[in-house]
Amino acid sequence: MTFNLTGNSGPGTLVSANATDRNGAYATSATLQSVYRNPVVWVISLSLLWASNVFAGSLPDFSTLIEEEGDAVVKISVTTSVTASTESQGFDLDQLPESQRRFFEQFPQFQDPTPRRGQGFGSGFIISEDGYVITNAHVVDNATEITVGLIDRREYTAELIGMDKPSDIALLKLDAQNLPVVQLGDSDDVKVGEWVLAIGSPFGFEYSATQGIVSAVARNLPADTYVPFIQTDVAVNPGNSGGPLFNTDGKVVGVNSQIYSRSGGYQGLSFAIPINVATNIAEQIKIKGYASRGWLGVLIQDVDQALAESFGLTKPEGALVADVTDDSPAEKAGLERGDIIVEFDGSPVTHSGKLPPMVGAVPVGSTVPVTVLRDGDETVIDVTIAELASDKREIQVSDNMQDDLLGLTVQGLTAELADSLGVKSGVVIAEVEAGSPAAEAGLMTGDVVVSLNRKDVKDVESFEALVQSLPSGKSFPVLVQRDGASVFRAIKIPANNE
Is 241 a known active-site residue? Predict the structure, then answer.
């Protein structure tokens, strides 16, 4: 095919282009409107065309990555033992957004404690040819049976080696050899703005791929003290949990774990556990069956502008030590109330949320330098990090109290936490035992117990005293604060506990 250009010379002329095929037949005709023949204009036009092609070529093509790495991504199906309260009237309450689920759970027909078998699903990825798989702890929590499915339709019954709820990481083992494995990257190198890809089974749709960019790093979430999350805008939904987050080099840099949502589905923010954190936890689980992390032993808070001025700082920064736990590494090293931690083990502490994951990542027994501001002067204190026991937390509110009669564990409230929850006093529920009177009454972790049997709960001690005077064999009311609203629940302690 040949092209002929016709038109008058000079700027502003109309130029027509005719194309003919090999037989000379007319093929197409186009008029290029107001094309200037000035060479400068042609240079600009060609430059814009070149720039648009370069930009288009810079967009990532993940097809090769999916072909090479997708076979190491697995779908995880779990069978759990739950109560019938999660399924009634023809639909499953577990699939509803939390606010709606809690509304329906207030009604008696949704509170039948009869045990039943439940089903759940998630994602994971194979990290060794002999069958070790990383996923989220919440995917396999309370599972009585775990099945792992590969892209070639093979299925294996998995053994749960162990899980770590604070980091939301679990390690599974398949009885298999020569399995495909993913390539592991370095999450410390992840940059805001770089392209990433998630592969998983959202809503059960197997091996679905979604892409986006990293929108933040080292993101601290209120309920996950020890994980500096990678925040992305990758579409992640229920079923993606535990699946890999790849960079453009085809290496896993994160484990998809959470979304920020008001509806229960993806709304633009998703969070992945950095792979460096995940593999560290998985290796500990593999070796000793559980994960341990460092413990400093301080109650900390952010430094706002007013506090910064009162402490003589030029800007708000650091973690303000509000209290030091007795017999803790912090107390032994000489940390004091009013110290502002601005650097930990050589890394800056810009705000209080950055400190817990830093401490948690330090090997137990290691001695690290901690830089604090005290009375306007900068001081370096060497601290030997101890192991965080199961009953300790980096940011503590008070001692725990285990109540076997009701089947729950409670913690005291600091003044700051009470203000944030909108209560004057009470105790916060840290854990509810499955099948206990508290669980059957619908009490949940995070509820603040305000009164028990119509008597105010002031603190852990008063709660413990009230529990001892509770009647058995008949129901009594408990008032809790939940999501900013007061809710009464009725609890009944079996008569055989008298």
Answer: yes
